[in-house]
Every structure is written in structure tokens, then in C-alpha cells.
Amino acid sequence: MVDDVMAITNFNDFCADLVNVAQWAKANGFDHTTLVTVNADVAERAPQEIRDAISRINLATTDVIADPDDYSNFLSEEDLEAIDDLSSDDPYAIDDGTGIDDGPEVIRSLYTFLCSCDQRRMAILSSRVLADDPKTLDEMGKEQGVTRERIRQLEKELKTQLTSIIADSDTMTQLRDLFRQEGEILPQDKAFQHMPLLVENVPIVDVPLWRLVQELEMEPRFEIADGWMAAPSIDDAKHFVNETLGADANEFGVVRIGGNASHAQSDHIDDSARNLQLWLRYCGMTVVDDFAFISCRSVEDFTAALLYVKDRPLTLEEIANADPRRRNVSSLRNALAKDDRVIRVSKDKYGLSVWGMPEYSTIRGEIQRILDRNGGSADLDDLVREIAGRSGASEKSIISYASILPFQTARGVVTRAGDERMKADNDPYMAARLFRHHDAWMLRITLTKDHQRGSGSILPLAMANVLGIDFQGERVLRSPLGDQHVYWNGMSPSLGTIKRFFGPYGLLVGRQVFLRFGDDGTFDIVPMTMPTGIPLHDALAMSACGDSVDPTDAITAIAHAIGLADDSTTDTVIARLRKRGDDDIADLVDSAV
User: Fold this and answer.
1) H or E, element range at 288
2) Out of 114-118, 324-328, 481-485, which region has the weakest mean confidence (pLDDT)?
3) Mean pLDDT for the chain?
């Protein structure tokens, strides 16, 4: 016995093997050939009735054994049922070949060959050649009871035989014609439409012909996956497209892929612009209109490419909506501020620097630019018309900015304010919600979601005086959680983010706290004492004055906090509170006396 052939261990297996051999022989022109010869030693010693049986066996030809109608000549009904059961249960049993005679020649040839394969070769074909997760040679060897080397040899022989059958047909010629006419990258459904042979089912193994050809790696090689067909593989096609289009991309990483593009008629790219766009998107590229964005690693790259394609200024919302990564407007704005290729050309639109459009700044920056251009002064009406026409800013806003630091407007002419006006002289004792307490100033605020998100916040103008900050100046204060910045670049000073205090201090949105500005250059946040509904208690809490059960002491503490003499009367304190804008505290004091 050959070392790679398993022994037959039951009658059904013997019958199945005999039928397989007979059917193959009959299909390959051995119709009247005998298959079985009983050992001569057995015939010599057997009685006559056994010799007659031996003679019938020896004379049985392939057409007799292969024809199911004639099985009853030498098999019982029970044996026939056993063969039928074997054929239906065996995963490698022969297909009945229904309709095979009407199929393409290559399918008929494959069917004939597969009918001749034993169970071992069919197992290799199913578990190795056509499997999505092929078994190893060792695994197959153990299953089949032979060495891994023998499995490798059988697999090689099997592939060679299948390749020879397909090569002898016109399959590969049709495939080469398909790639030559339609390109080597095309949608799967279009490939099947132009070459229906690819989807013809191969009997017995029950796979489409393209799957068998793909696994045999015949030339021209190809791969079908994710709805695409590409030669020699999907990955190779992606690499080719990236290299080819990348070589033609402009300085913004953009290449036209419309009907006039050189690649649209390439042997390597589907000539349909729509299919090409779908392929590029499958490859992970961004496609806008008739353009592919080859290198868009950052939001700045994407914005520059989009502006080039649209050829007009765009708003941040338009850019963000077109971005496949859907980055938010805030991060987009911050990124564009650092990119020299993109400039802000109006209040809400951005363009490319190469367009030569004037760059938009703030209203203050626009006023300064006009003053510099005109020698330090400008007619207010002319200034308003120019800025409003270019930026879309309201006339009211422009007039307001022209009247505050660092500018001044007098008799319809705008100029830059003198140095003496760049300093704040506002009395901190007259600023609402700002109180003096020992060696610090205490500003009462209500925490908002903006504070929690990390936004800065406006301070009273008097704080510039308290902290000694001139216009366009900055002060850095020390806090338990690091440096705290205060700067004055707008109409009023601004406090940098206090977001970092929320967690460690247990701060909550909606709560009132005091911002403590120490005389020694320190900063901290102090929770306000919770109100109790007792008027004088709540007035002291809102003034950062602690608590007192004595009404006189309470009025003295509030008077001191707002810059009045300690012996000030209640009426005087109430009047000062209202003048400062602290009507809520004034009402509490008034109701308590």
C-alpha cells in the first residue's frame, strides 16, 4: 500500500471509491474498460458459483459500475441506501453535476477533474487552497495520517492540475482583455458584468470561478475584496494610485481627477470619474468635487486644499462641515492661526495667502492699520465705511472701538490716545462687587459654565488700577495652583482661566465665590458664606465681611469694605452701595435696620 493512501475500513467506503473511479473513467473515455480483477489465487480455490461471481466482477466495465440504474445488478437495496447516505453526508462527495453539460467548457473540465479527486485531495482543496483561514501542513498531516511534506506535495500537484485546466481554457485571456479594456482597478459588480464567467459556480467545491483562480495566483494576478477588483492586489493598487496621483499633486496636495485628468484614461485606473472617486475614498483619500486631496494629515492641510478647490473665502463652519474628520470650529480656528498659507480675510471668512487679499484682524487692528496708513488720524465716517464694507462689522461696534483705548474720537476724527489715557484711574471702592478686606481686594462673581470650560472672564476696569496694569499690559499672580494671568487688551481687563480650581476646590457652576487679589501679588478663590435668609448676615456674606451678631459692627465692617469711614451711618452705607451698583446688598441692609 502506498504510504499516503488510507485503508478502506468498511463496505460503504469501498463502494464509494469504486463508484468514484468508475464515474471518472467513464467521463474520460474509458466507457467499456474493466476496473476490477479478483486475485487469481482466490478464483483457483473457489467453488463454481464463486468463480461465476468472480467472472462477473472481472468483466464489469466502467459504464456498468458508474450507472446508478445498474447498481441493483450486484448490490442489495440496503447497500444502495448506504451509498446514498454516504454521498449525502460526505463533505467531499461527488456533486451530481446537474446542468453541468450546459456550462462553460472550463467549468465542465474542472468538474470532471474534481470528480476524480479522492477525499484527501478534496480535503486539501477545501481546508488549504480555498479556506479563509487555511489549516497548517502539520494540522492537515495529522488529520490525514501522513507527513506534512506529503500534504505539501499533494497540494502542489493539485494546484498544478487545476492551473493547467484553467490555462487550457480562455479564462485568463478574457481576464487580460478585461483589465486592458476596463483598467486594473474596477468595481466588483462591473467586473462581473463584463466577464460573467468569473461568477460561474465550480461544482463540488461550490465556489465562484474567480475565487479558485485568485487562490491559484495565476497570471494576471488579481484580488477581489470589499466590492473592488484590482490587479495584482488591492494593496498594490492603493500604493500605485497614491504614488501616481501624489507625483502630480500641487503645492496644496491637490490633484484634479475629473474627465480631463491624465489618470482618468490610465490603464491602471477605472475610466469612470465616479468609480475613480469611489475608489479614492475607499483608499482613505478626501475627494471634493473633481479633486483628490493627496496629503491632508492635518486640519491646516485640509483647509488649504479646500480653499484651493473652492477658490473663494470660506467660513469656519463651511470648512468644518466639509472636513471628513468633523473637527470642531474652536480647534480649527486655533490651528489656522498658526498656518502661513491661510489668512483671515473678513470677520468670519478665511482665504489663501497667495490670493493677495488684505488680512483681517480685529476691529481695533483694522482701525490701527488705517491710522498708520493715514499718518495717525482718520475721518470717523470714512473709517466706518471702510471697515464695515470689508469685514461686515456693525457701524455701532466700529464707532465704539474708535472711542475707547487705545483710540479717541474728537470732532469726527479718530486718533491714537495719548499715554496719559493708557492708565486706569478708576476708583476700586466705587466698583460693584469689589470689596477691601484686610490686605486684599475681594471680587464676588458667580461661577459659570464658561469658567468651567476654561474661558477667561472680564474684570472691572478698576482692577487694572488695583493691579497696576497699563493698557496692553499683563500681570502674573501667584496662586496655590500655579500662575494666574491678568491682562488688559480690550475694553476692560481680563482674568485668565480658572478651570483648574474646579476639581481641587470643589467648585460648582452657579455658586458665588470671591476672587482674592492679595497686595503681595497672590491670587486665590474663596467660597462665599452660604446665605441664611437673615438680611444682615447675608449682606456681610456678600461683602466678604465674615459674620457679626452686632448690627453696629456689621455696618462698620461693610463701610470699611467699600471705602467709607468706620463711623459712617447706615444711610451713608446704603447710599454708597447703591451708587456702586450693589443694590442687592443695599436692600438687605435697609431691611435689617
Assistant:
1) strand 286-288
2) 324-328
3) 83
